[in-house]
Amino acid sequence: MTNLTLQDALEKFLDEVAASRSPNTHKAYAQAVGHFLDVLKEHGITPAAPVSELSVEWMSWFIQSLHAFAVATERLYITALTAFYEHAAAENWAPVNLPALRRLCRRRARREAARLPPFPRAEIEKILETVAQAATPPPHDEREHLRILRDRALLYVLADTGLRVSEACGLTRGHLDWTEARARVLGKGNREAIVRFSERSLRYLRAYLDARAELDGQQGRPLSGLPLFARHDKAAGGRVLPLSPRSAEKIVEEWTVAALGERARGTITPHTFRHYFVTVVLRGSGGNVRLAQELARHRSITTTQRYTHLSDDELDRGYHRIFNEPDSEMEQG
Hints:
Blueprint: H1 6-20, H2 23-42, H3 56-65, H4 71-90, H5 98-108, H6 121-134, H7 142-161, H8 165-169, E1 176-177, E2 182-186, E3 192-196, H9 199-211, H10 213-217, H11 245-260, H12 270-284, H13 289-296, H14 301-305, H15 312-323, H16 329-332
Antiparallel strand pairs: 1-2, 2-3
Helix pairs in contact: 1-2, 2-3, 2-4, 3-5, 4-5, 6-7, 6-11, 7-9, 7-12, 12-13
């Protein structure tokens, strides 16, 4: 055992998290730890208490206090404190009953209700229509026209390939096989995969790259190494720099507002385009879940099955076709 106080132990744990996890994870864990200390103070336990007194009951108080939080926050905070308890046990700071702790967490933690992925089909198609129309007039400002051509290509690629925004921004010209209409991408979990491109997405990509040809030729680098989607702001100057995922998110937001109005700001993200892609594949293939899983590169088919819901209109039509059409089997019987 140790003479560490609870405060000392928590600080050592957070130092370990900072060294091994992302800054965002460290921030979230630190917030969870702060709330844990607040809960303990309400029960008369100060940060100066010996960490050797750490008990499963303290976790029970902590979980109870989280019921006012969102379910996702509750799960994150419980994960953080469970990691601390495991760390304390591994360091021999406290005689923690880990099996009892895990049973408590499973029994007491709330479960987040499964939500259907958003499928604003009409909104996505309105955004695509708006950016396509904007790219049609002759250019008055060369940089602005290039930016619009890029935005059109990007949005249609997101809609028709199911690429994640980080994957799209990571593509170079050399990744794309124009003959086979596909690209090799490094996806989630550093897994390499093949992504197919539609004819219209390739057409818009070609128009964008043709307009960018002079700029690309000035780089003194092989074209294959240049980014597929580039920045076209003043800060980039004459350099061809890759578009960042954050910039791509802003592009989606700008065209969402342009197409749907200010009230729609924040309602459509690059990932919404991925939801759109998966659901379009499912509906176009007659509900072929395996095809949708492969094209979306979902590791688990359970993820794809979340998209197999039908809209109210489709349910209404299906019900009417079965029960109300004159030549239905029910009436023939």
